[in-house]
Amino acid sequence: MGGMFRGLCALVAVALLPACTLIPKTVPPAGYPSAPVPAPTPVPVPTPPPAATAAQLGVRAGPAIDTLNLSGGRATAALRSFFESCPRLISRNDNSGLTRAADWKEACDAAKTWPASDAPGFFSRHFETARIGEGKAFVTGYYEPEIAGTRNPQPGFAVPVYRLPPDLIRAWPDEIPPEQRTGNPPLGRYDETGKFVPYHDRAAIEDGALANKGLEIAYAADAIEFFFLQIQGSGRLLAPDGTVMRIGYAGQNGRDYVGIGSLMRQRGLVGGTTQYPTSMQGLMAWLRENPEAGKAIMRENLSYIFFREIIGDGPLGSLGVPVRGQSSVAADPAFTPLGAPVWLTLDRPEASGLWIAQDTGGAIKGANRFDTFWGAGVSARQIAGGMTGRGEALLFLPKGTLARLGAQ
Q1: What strand order describes the sheet that includes 187-190?
Q2: Rounded to whole angstroms, how far apart are CA atoms 323 and 334?
Q3: What is the rounded distance in angstroms from the CA atom of residue 82 to the CA atom of residue 119?
Q4: DSSP structural state of residue 184
C-alpha cells in the first residue's frame, strides 16, 4: 500500500506539484474518541450487455478435424446436406459475424465433385474447428410429425390449419418514438380503429379470430397432436383415404413462445415423483388426462404457427433447403452460420457427431443451443420426444476464418 502511495506521489509531483510529502497518520491521545471513518461509497460496476452474436461472445480455435474421428456414414450425409445448403451460403449474410459469403465458395465448389466415399476428407481439407464461448452445448430433438388430417372439413376433423394471414404485418406502434425504432419492426395488425396492435394470440385464434376468412388449408383431427406439430414446425397430414399432405412453416403470429414442458415441470405436473416423464410422450399423456387444465396450459404458449403446403423432397428448414433426418440441426443464426457444419460431443451418443445447421426455432436461442432433426415415423418421434443432451459443440468454419477473426 505504501509503495502504491509513493508511486502516486511521484506522478503527482511531476505533473502538478513542486513536491509531494508523505503525511504521517495522526494518533489521538489515549481515551480520546476516534472520529468515525466513513465507509467508502461503493462505485457501481456496469454490467456488460450480453453478447448478441458469436463474434461478440468470442471465438477460439478448436482441435484439428482429423482428431475427431468422423465416421464415413455420418460424414457422407453431412456432405450431402452441406452441398444442398451452398446456394444460400454463398449468397446470404451471416448474422453471427463469423463468416462472409465469399468464405464458403471454395468448399462449395469442391463439394460439387467430391466423392461421397471420402466425405471425412472433404471436411478435413476445407474446414477448421471453432469453439464459440465456452462451447458448452445443450441439445434437444425434433421430428416431422404424422398426424390425422384432411384438406377439407369432415366429421372428426375440425381443428383448422391456417395459412399466413394477410393482415399479419410488421410496423411500428405509434407509441414508439422514431429514435427508438431500430432493427425489425414488431409483428402485429391494425385493429378496427387503425391502431397497430399485437396480433391475435393462441387463445384468440383457437376461439375463432381467424375463422371464416378463407385461411384454412387443412383440418387436423386432434388439437393436442396439432399443438405439438406446431412446435415441430412441419409435418404430414394423413387422411382416412391414405393421401398425405405435407405442410411446412409459413410464419408466426409474433407472440411469445412459452415452452409448456418447463411450466409443467415447475408446477410439479410432470417429472419428479409423478407418473409422467418430462418427455413429449409424458406431456401428452398428462394433457389428455386433464383436458380442461391442459387446454389452459397450452394457451399459455401465446405463439401460433401458420403453414403452407410443401411439395417436394422433405420439409424445408429456415435456410430454404430440405432438412434431413440425423443430418440437420436447428440453431440460433446469431451464433451459428446457417449452412455450417456442427460437431457435437454429447452424453447422448445417438446425437453425437456431425450435423449441418439448416433450420431455426422459436426456442432455439443462444450460443451452442441446437435442435437435432430425426426425420419422420415412430422411431423419430420416440427419439426426438425424449432428446435432451449436454456436452460440447464445435463449428466447422472455412479455413482461414479464425486467422481473419484473430482467434487463438
Answers
A1: 169-170, 187-190, 196-197
A2: 20
A3: 11
A4: S
